[in-house]
Design a protein that fits this description.
Layout: E1 3-8, H1 19-27, E2 30-33, E3 50-53, H2 65-77, E4 81-86, H3 96-105, E5 110-113, H4 118-125, E6 139-143, H5 152-161, E7 164-168, H6 174-183, E8 191-196, E9 204-209, E10 224-228, E11 248-249
Parallel strand pairs: 1-4, 1-5, 2-3, 2-4, 6-7, 9-11
Antiparallel strand pairs: 7-10, 8-9, 8-10
Length: 250
Amino acid sequence: MGKVYIVGAGPGDEELITLKGVRAIKEADVILYDRLVNISLLEYAKESAVRIFCGKEPNKHGVIQDYINEQLVYYANKGKVVTRLKGGDPFIFGRGGEEALYLEEREINYEVVPGITSGISAAAYAGIPLTHRHVSGSVSFINGANPQSKTLDEWRHIAFGTETLCFYMGIKNFPVICEKLEEAGLPSTTPVAIIHWGTLTHQKTVVADLQTIVERLDEVSNPSMIVIGEVVKLHEKIKWFKEQCETISL
């Protein structure tokens, strides 16, 4: 029997992967990697390692999840060490839980290697602490892909359940997200930051408020993290990372 490592590769900056994650790449006979994985991480792999790209473009058909699951089992059953390399953290909107269950049900030996999720890291590189003892004591990670599927009560829970909101995969539907949050009662003056290509040298941050941020959507695209809450104001004071593109604020 082989073994599968489900590895979080971190948010983009190749130095933000864990030592355990690097070891899993070095040991791998087969590597299945996603679109947002920094390709330089593959330099740690053995020359003989099989590399399989499993990326999915936004709004485009990519490698289907069933095929990825089957490949993990196929190579593990051949006695191979398989590293499933995923952007960010595999258990934060990364389908790592689906893959782990698939392996568990088929009695495949596997290990989960956590990674730094983009919600935490992109905000940190933009100078936005998601929690601050004088500003925010709670944070939510939210899938922004299908905002229309939630009821008004659900949006009220999102808007006021925690003090900081982090939306993943929300750029396409961001006007709807803003509309739903305002309908739920979140003030239109609530600060918002959109962080494009977080942790990389070409990172770009747009800061405005809930009412006006949509006007600047043409300044960014996927992949982007969206942070909403009073902690966004700290962005102007915590400027440790110099972005190649100048920050745009309203």
